[in-house]
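Hi all, a correction to my earlier message: I attached the wrong file for All-trans-retinol 13,14-reductase. Here's the right sequence:
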Amino acid sequence: IRKMWIIVAIICAALAALLYKYVFRTSGPNPFDIDTREPLKPLVTQKKEKNKVLKQGFLASKVPEKLDAIVIGSGIGGLGVAVLLAKVGKRVLVLEQHDRAGGCCHTFTEKGFEFDVGIHYIGDLLEHKPFRCMLDQLTNGQLQWEPLDNPFDQVVLGPPGNRRTYPIYSGRNRFPDELKKLFPGEEAAIDEYMRLVKVWCSGHNIWFLGLLKLIPVPLAKFLVYTGLANRLSFFFRMASRSVTEVVNELTKNNDLRVIFSYIFGTYGNMPKDASFSMHSLMVCHYLTGAWYPIGGASEIAYHMIPIVEKAGGAVLVRAPVNRILFNDNKEAIGVSVMKGQEEIHVHAPMVISNAGIFNTYQQLLPKELQDMPAIQKQLGMMKNGAGGLSIFLGLTGTKEDLGLKADNYWIFTEHNMDELVETYLKGNREESAKSVPILFVGSPSAKDPTWEERSPGTETRLVLVSFANYEWFEEWKDDKVTNRGTDYKELKQIFCDSILEVVMSVFPKITRDKVEFIEAGTPITNTHYIGAPKGEIYGADHGTARFSAECNATVRPQTPLKNLYLTGQDVFVCGFAGALAGALTCGSVILNRNLHLDAIALAKKTKRVDTKKLK
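and the right structure:
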């Protein structure tokens, strides 16, 4: 028995040493070595000037020589890893299929109204915290953030005759304290909910989520198959528990159950299918507040691209990659870009895909590599996320005229969310379009303090987001995007009309005569503009299966093919912060150092320096 315990102790010591090595590895170059923030420059409001950065079209003559890496896709996951590599002197080419850079961070203008397509609010941006420090470094301190009002969310439940509105406040203490005022007698349930959320998304648990993707595959498999990963991380141990399961155990109050669950709209799974572990990450993300980029979402890419260019790289648009190139040893050596009917080959010793796991493995690999068991195993662990539906509304009047504030509204037709969403998604498309059960409403105009300066006049924008089945629209996917036929337009109009009725009932100052512009973006719109294979807006599905230890250890930045890496939402979790975490994890693997720890170290350093300056 004594010998057995000695062997166990030796194994544990060796395991601890290996984990320590990969947690604290620092052999590679550090993109966060120095504080690169620069004095704030004036906001550029001229679209022509911004487009010189955001809309640089692909030409073979513009491809830099002696590339170190090619990144497919210019969303935050792609740009993020490109900037990290550029900061250590790597020459990176980012290729974007759309006509402007940014992915879900891009904006578009119709009839004078500028709309954001994916950035509605971001959490965890307190000064000198690691996430804020990382963003400051990735934009050289030029990207500024405006806090939303507090309460930052309003949850609206029920039909007009029985409508209840619940304000959601930020603040680790204020959030639960305000809930207790709204739900007297539910103090114990609220306290237990907060305890669970904080345990699930504690620093230790999140670090282990990233660690499984950084350590070598054999070590990760050992931790998974011995059960140690679940024992060491509460996140994995409880990942199979759904939001509905946990919340229903806490309270019988149906409205409070909605308040505990409402933020599922930020990752796209019904509460009964969503992992409470993942859900806790989203709740924690907004506990310290919510912010919006000053100048609009396009500011993000606008301030990242020059850093890539300064290192000798480029970000080129209208550059659809149709396949990844490999040598006879199954090593990635570049990509093929379609320019009209011509294929242009661009070579680099490394290819990083921000196109998502399904596009990368099912569209960009040759058939013989798609069929590799290791590739098929990863695909078998993931499934496509929910299709996104967006309504873009241009209104006459100021935000004050229309009763809009710097906050968001989450509108539910009633408290039985699982049943309502399931019935909606399984229903006939024309009937479902008349009764959308969940709706997000936000006004970029009200959130951005520079809106009136950038768009003088009395126009205001609203962006409305919900979900819709890709299959409802699939028959029109191959039609020209600007001419998909009468039936398609009529279906979109049904959605627009029913959703507008909901908006007008919640915001009585918004009336039909104030509507100057309305347009719907369907799942096939998402496929066209952001390359989402099934119209999803949050990447791969965020159900309970995705957050098992095995799935997290298997789907990682390193692919089974040498010199091919994944970045973005599908590597970590969805959303702006999740995609950036995917970029940081990918950069850590490529540069052979833990960039998460480097960002924390620089955050502490900049706080000390800034505090001294204030004194």
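Sorry for the mix-up. The chain has a mean pLDDT of 93.
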